[in-house]
Prior knowledge:
The protein is α/β, with parallel strands linked by helices.
Amino acid sequence: MTNLPIRRVTTDLLEVAYHEAGPADGRPVVLLHGFPYDIHSYADVAPMLANSGYRVIVPYLRGHGPTRFLSPATPRSGQQAALGADVIALLDALQIPSAILAGYDWGGRAACVAAALHPERVSGLVSVNGYLIQDIAASANPLPAELEAGFWYFFYFLTERGRAGLTANRREIAEVIWRRNSPKWTFGDAELDRAAAAFDNPDYVDVVIHSYRHRLGRALGAQEYAAAEAALAQLPPIGVPTVTLDGTADGNFPATDGSAGAAHFTGRRVHRQVHDAGHNLPQEAPEAFADAIREVSR
């Protein structure tokens, strides 16, 4: 399996490394990966969409792969507002007025944040597991025990032992999470090694640790995102055309009929279940993910 070729563009805070495919004048689609994954979650989706005439952009998120902060003084924040702001900054840098955003996990959250706060920049949304804006005020409310067990790393990363563990065992932690997240996905060392190369980023640990501590109310956010986080605390609606997806074999997020989060989507929205797909849905079921993008673009 070959690595996707990358380009680079400079935003206000980052040099963003990204893969691009398809015609330059095609309808833009930004595909956003999760944690602990990388852009190769879209290794099959990207050419499918490119062949359908879309301009496909697949960036490495902050703290991943060759994406780098421009200044050592910039807080290595992993909070949701930062991830959403990075998407809008990327569109600005590429001079794209609006795009379809699609993602899962961290990438789905970034897409939801951008769609809620900057709907004029988002022509459509595909989000795995529905509405992913974090309700930080409710983060102390417990989940059912079986679900809590799957989120062991949330609590591990609250500790300095967890920081040391992530520093030393990036690939190994990813493998444990992958197997729990996607119990029916048969992946090998090659897929894991390819993604794990993205975890060698010098800011990976800081960004990841901050992300999980912030979402559980155990770390302050960066001041530049205070206004955005205040808006996100209201759980703003998403009014852009949307397709939400659930994998029926997602080990941490059981598939639903989509009704629980329906009130957060005020525009045209369709919910689909993808049979036997796990949490890394675009890599496990690329055709279904590509079809969702085609559907929302209509």
